[in-house]
Every structure is written in C-alpha cells, then in structure tokens.
Write a structure and sequence with these properties.
The protein has about 270 residues and is an alpha/beta fold. The protein has two domains: about 150 residues, NAD(P)-binding Rossmann-like Domain (Rossmann fold); about 110 residues, 2-Layer Sandwich (Dihydrodipicolinate Reductase, domain 2), CATH 3.30.360. The chain is built from nine helices and twelve strands. The strands form two sheets. Strands 3-2-1-4-5-6-12 form a seven-stranded parallel β-sheet, with helices on both faces. Strands 8-9-7-10-11 form a five-stranded mixed β-sheet. Strand 5, helix 4 and strand 6 form a beta-alpha-beta unit. Helix 1 crosses helix 8 and helix 3 packs parallel to helix 4. It starts with 7 loop residues before the first strand and ends with a helix. The relative contact order is 0.15. The model has no long low-confidence stretch (mean pLDDT about 95).
C-alpha cells in the first residue's frame, strides 16, 4: 500500500466462485484493502446478495452485481479469476476507466493472449497463471538447473488438479515448460510432448514431456523431473489451500496500484527480475 493513503479499494469478479470466495474473505481480514464491489455472471444465484453473507464471512454491505461497468469508477484495482472471455470483457472495462487489474485466469488461446496484451497497455496489470510465492521462486530457479544439466537430462513436467478444472495442461505447467524451453534456447511448440500413447519410438533428445492428472479435489500439484543416467532430480510444489493463490493476488493488488501502465507478472511483484 502507498504510504499515507487509506485502504486500497478492490473489486472482485467471480465473487461466488472457488477463488472469489476466498478473496472476499481475506480482503475483509486485511488492514490495507477494502472490498467495494463484487461481480458474478448473469443468472448466478449470488447476484443481489451481500458478498460477505454469500461467502460466509458476515455482512459487508457490498451487493454482488452482474455489471462491472457500474463499479469500475469506484475501484482502484480489480482482481480477476474467471474465464478467458469474461476476463477480456472486464479488462476492456477497466482499461477504459484507467484502473489497475490483477489477472489469475488461465486457459487463454493465442489470439486471446494477444488481445489481452493489447487491452492491458493503458493500465498497470499483473497477469500470472499462478500467484503463489513458492511457484514463482521455482520459475526463477528452474532455468539455471536446466542450463546446468543440459540435454543429457530428460525433462518432464507433471501437474495434477481437481476434476472441475477445464483447461489442460494448467497455465502454471505451461509457464514452467516455457521457462525451461527458453533456458534451453528452444521454442516450446517444437519440443513439447503432450502425453504419450502407442508406438511412439524412443524419447527425442531435448523433448519436454507434459503430463496431466485430473482427480477429486486436488487444489494444485506441479513437479519438474530431470532424468539423467543413474540419477534423477525432482522439484515439486504442492498447494494445500487456495488461500496460497488468494494471498498472492492480494499482494499483487497492493503492488500494482503504485505502478505505471504495463503488463507485469508475479516475478515483478516479488522483485525476482
């Protein structure tokens, strides 16, 4: 938070969802943040209800609405964990109001990512597939490991999430694979192998394997395996609570309101660049 200012005014979209409910609760507990708006999709049962009562943290005096436009001028920052289409719509609204944004939505197509980058140009915006501090430390460390080991060590990226997750591989797994490919001086599209089946022949040198599990209520597990001859190295990150992501997003929200226009990520927020 900028010294001398009052609480940062926050709007949360997807306020009735798995991440939104935790964000609303943690904002209520924060000494630096104030919830001034909560948004859900048209027809969602939470629309019209008090945001705090909806998530079980007590009355907040903030009604859930399906119209972000009416809230944009009240906010200093919007925190977004929804769907790609909804995120782009909300980003356009916040850009028109010149207000900051934190985006944790995943599953964007290449054209949607291009649109996101264009829409975000007028405002300070943090966009990251994973807001946890731990995973972003791994993103900083993994390129050095990959460069040191070289192509004599095979790389596999493994991820596991709950049965309701719609996109695969996860945005985090794709980001892990991207930084590994960059460290090897390769284009990810040229070296990624998404699952394996049938007579595929020997593993290609320099390949990055991508393996996906969807089961039960797994919040989020990611691992990178470096397999050499006679040894292997496994780097694993497991999330035990969605609060890990929510707290990271709130940290990003407090940071981004003090920045100039630009597209940032959690490496910027954490000072890892």
């Amino acid at each position: 938070m900028v010294k001398g200012k009052g609480k940062i005014k926050v709007v949360v979209t997807g306020a009735g969802g798995r991440m939104g409910t935790r964000l609303v609760t943690l904002i209520k507990e924060s000494p630096n943040l104030e919830l001034v708006g909560a948004v859900e999709g048209k027809g969602h049962p939470a629309v019209g209800a008090d945001a705090g009562e909806t998530v079980g943290c007590g009355r907040l005096g903030v009604r859930v609405t399906d119209d972000l436009t009416a809230l944009a001028d009240r906010a200093e920052v919007l925190i977004e964990f929804t769907s790609p289409d909804a995120t782009l719509k909300h980003l356009a609204i916040m850009a028109a109001s010149r207000k900051a944004m934190v985006i944790g939505t995943t599953g964007f197509s290449a054209p949607q990512l291009a649109e996101l980058r264009e829409l975000a140009k007028p405002i300070p915006c943090v966009f990251a597939p994973n807001m946890s501090v731990g995973i972003n430390v791994l993103l900083k460390m993994l390129p050095q490991i990959a460069r040191t080991l070289g192509e004599d060590y095979d790389i596999e990226v493994l991820e596991a999430h709950h049965r309701l997750k719609k996109d695969a591989p996860s945005g985090t797994a794709l980001k892990l694979a991207q930084v590994l490919a960059d460290a090897m001086g390769k284009a990810l599209d040229a070296v990624a192998a998404y699952g394996r089946k049938g007579m595929i022949g020997e593993r290609k040198r320099g390949e990055i394997g991508m393996q996906v599990i969807r089961a039960g209520d797994i919040i989020g597990d990611h691992a990178v395996l470096f397999g050499g001859l006679g040894e292997r190295i496994e780097v694993t990150h497991r999330v035990q609570s969605r609060d890990t992501f929510a707290r990271g997003a709130l940290r990003a929200a407090q940071w981004v309101v003090a920045q100039g226009p630009g597209l940032y990520d959690m490496q910027d927020v954490l000072g890892l660049k």
